[in-house]
């Protein structure tokens, strides 16, 4: 059974008198353990798809099954639970809380789950160790480089042991050298820790790290290539 199965997704936006399909009949299946790049120009539909996969947006029609669950049939509370248990998010802008240490930032998803503090700290330290920041747990975001901040964000995404990581332009604010380091972390998470990763990027160099590349144009998938 696929981890992600979307069928015939249509998402229509209106701008004044005009309307256009950000998603125009998109169907896509992703198996557990895949590392997939979603590529396309601005306005191609890739971000709308990512918001749908993250349960942050709902199309006008179509279906979405995540690990066998019909996502569009869930209540707001059930969707929140799915986000906490099944999904880890990594964003271009890191989205860290500025006056909070790396350790506390990583703990945030577990607070919403009601995990006791002692266990939260233990799991957060383990996640920071995975991304090579065990010696930075008490540093604030402004005391860390961009690459270190993104690694804290990755630790936060994996701390709940979610099977699926959604990364939206995760290297967009980073220089080339740091981008390579971050992508190598994603490769490690995929190959050593079995995480399924769906990554939005417009950069071919970044997509090279992924095992499968899906390209969007005008709300449609125009190619879907698996690396040999």
Averaged pLDDT: 91
Specify the number of helices: 7
CATH topology name, in short, is Rossmann fold
Task: Report on the biggest sheet.
Answer: 6 strands, mixed
Share of helical residues: 25-40%
Total count of strands: 10
Q: How far do the termini sit from each other?
A: 22 Å
What is the CATH-assigned architecture? 3-Layer(aba) Sandwich
Q: How many structural domains does the protein architecture include?
A: 1
**Stretches with pLDDT under 50, minimum 5 residues:** none
Over all CA atoms, what is the radius of gyration? Answer: 18 Å
Q: What is the overall shape?
A: globular
Q: Order the strands across the largest sheet as they lie in space.
A: 6-7-8-3-9-10
Identify the CATH homologous superfamily: P-loop containing nucleotide triphosphate hydrolases
The secondary-structure element order is EEEHEEHEHHHEHEHEE
């Amino acid at each position: 059974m696929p981890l992600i199965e979307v069928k015939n997704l249509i998402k229509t936006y209106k701008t004044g008198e005009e309307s256009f399909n950000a998603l125009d009949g998109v169907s896509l299946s992703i198996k557990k353990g895949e590392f997939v790049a979603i590529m396309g120009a601005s306005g191609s539909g890739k971000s709308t798809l990512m918001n749908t996969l993250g349960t942050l947006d709902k199309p006008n029609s179509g279906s979405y099954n995540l690990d066998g669950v019909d996502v569009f049939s869930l209540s707001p509370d059930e969707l929140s639970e799915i986000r906490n248990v099944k999904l880890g998010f990594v964003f271009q802008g890191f989205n860290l809380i500025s006056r909070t240490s790396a350790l506390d930032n990583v703990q945030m998803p577990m607070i919403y789950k009601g995990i006791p503090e002692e266990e939260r700290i233990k799991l957060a330290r383990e996640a920071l160790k995975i991304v090579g920041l065990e010696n930075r747990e008490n540093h604030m975001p402004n005391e860390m480089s961009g690459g270190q901040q993104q690694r804290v964000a990755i630790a936060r995404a994996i701390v709940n042991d979610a099977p699926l990581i959604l990364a939206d332009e995760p290297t967009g604010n980073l220089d080339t050298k740091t981008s390579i380091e971050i992508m190598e972390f994603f490769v490690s998470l995929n190959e050593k820790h079995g995480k399924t990763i769906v990554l939005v990027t417009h950069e071919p160099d970044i997509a090279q790290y992924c095992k499968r590349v899906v390209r969007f144009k005008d709300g449609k998938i125009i190619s879907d290539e698996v690396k040999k």
